[in-house]
Design goal:
The chain starts with 9 loop residues before the first helix and ends with a helix. A hairpin with a 2-residue loop joins β9 and β10. 39% of the residues lie in helices and 14% in strands. α3 packs across α13. The radius of gyration is 19 Å and the shape is globular. 48% of the residues are buried. With 366 residues, the protein is an alpha/beta fold. The strands form two sheets. Strands 1-2-4-3-5-6-7-8 form an eight-stranded mixed sheet, with helices on both faces. The protein has a two-stranded antiparallel sheet with strand order 9-10. The protein has one domain: Rossmann fold.
Length: 366
């Protein structure tokens, strides 16, 4: 299969006023780009976000009761729009990448709602269970609440636009929420263009979960996988509603799952009502749905580094080829590839290049 040119579209970057990405020494290569925030934490202002809880229903499997998700609202004077920022696997609203993106968007004039998904600190105590790549029953109530906020954060009478920005798995969750809403509207005989978001930015977001699971299981990624599993197991066992004997049995008793796939097989898939892990990976992977009906999304920009050690670029390249061949998309989906950048890295000479790209791109949306 022949892939499109993976270089960033110079015309698009010129329109956005963003120079092409150049990695910054000493953060050279995909792994150092990925680990930069861990090795050298970002110097960020004190978190002054205002807490906001949103009620969510019980999981479809009944494994945990209803509860709430905790988010934090950062709002500058007279914001241009509200952006829901979503963390990735094992993350939270306090992680450096989420905080840094929120600061960059705030500086550009946007209100930001940093969300903690089910099981993530600091909202772990509010809801039982853990989140998944497709968790629409949790995410859609939050987006509905955010849409209501768009009417209260403005003094001009016209509601603010509502955008989304997802890092890694956070982008996958937002993609699935938009795809689900569009499908439901079609089934009800309504215009599929009605969306929970007016625009979406995704950075390093998995489009094929099975491919990502296989990638993280490579021997070179052993340390990454161990770190992720430790966080996921800790979140699971810290459930304030308790962990059932069945959950513990699925997790192998006292022995922690050895792979992300094993964790998803024992915890994520059954808790979210999937028959097995293969069914979960298939249904919760946006790639197949986007190739079939790319117009089901709001205006969307996806950023992917070719040297990402976690998320293979092949899926994004496949989507790029499908989008370029489908004239009906009217550029609903745009993709930017960089040769370097790692996983949620993109650390350049002037800070995080992905943050600047997100802020500049959102400026083009009305």
């Amino acid at each position: 299969m022949s892939w499109p040119d993976p270089h960033p579209d110079p015309q698009l970057l010129k329109q956005l006023g963003v120079a092409p990405f150049q990695q910054r020494l000493p953060w050279w290569g995909g792994d150092l780009q990925t680990l930069r925030d861990t090795l050298r934490p970002v110097d960020l202002p004190i978190d002054q976000g205002q807490p906001l809880e949103v009620q969510v229903p019980a999981l479809s499997s009944g494994a945990a009761g209803s509860g709430a998700l905790l988010s934090f609202l950062d709002c500058p004077p007279a914001p241009k729009a509200l952006v829901v920022v979503l963390h990735g696997l094992g993350g939270s609203s306090r992680r450096e990448g989420v905080r840094r993106l929120g600061v960059a968007l705030g500086a550009a004039g946007y209100a930001v709602l940093r969300l903690n998904m089910r099981g993530a600190d600091p909202g772990r105590h509010l809801a039982g269970g853990t989140y998944a790549a497709q968790c629409n029953s949790d995410l859609l109530p939050v987006l509905n609440r955010a849409r209501q906020l768009c009417s209260t954060l403005t003094s001009e009478g016209t509601p603010l636009p509502l955008f989304g920005a997802g890092l890694s798995l956070g982008g996958t969750m937002l993609l699935n929420a938009c795809l689900s809403t569009s499908a439901e509207r079609v089934a009800a005989g309504l215009d599929p263009a009605g969306q929970p978001l007016d625009g979406l930015f995704c950075a390093s977001s998995p489009l094929d979960l099975a491919a990502c699971s296989a990638s993280i299981e490579r021997p070179r990624n052993r340390v990454y996988q161990r770190w992720l599993l430790q966080r996921l197991v800790r979140q699971t066992l810290a459930d304030p509603f308790g962990v059932s004997d069945l959950d513990l049995e699925r997790m192998g008793g006292a022995e922690q799952p050895r792979t992300i796939r094993a964790f998803d097989s024992s915890v994520t898939a059954p808790r979210w009502g999937f028959v097995d892990v293969d069914a979960y990976y298939w249904e919760a992977s946006p790639l197949q749905h986007l190739i079939q009906s790319p117009q089901r999304l709001p205006p969307t920009l996806m950023l992917q580094a070719l040297d990402d050690p976690w998320v293979p670029a092949r899926s994004a390249l496949e989507l790029s080829e499908a989008v370029s061949m489908d004239e009906s998309t009217d550029q609903t989906i745009q993709l930017i590839f960089t040769r370097e950048g790692g996983h949620n890295g993109f650390h350049g000479r002037a800070g995080c290049w992905a943050d600047a790209l997100a802020a500049s791109w959102l400026q083009t949306l009305k």
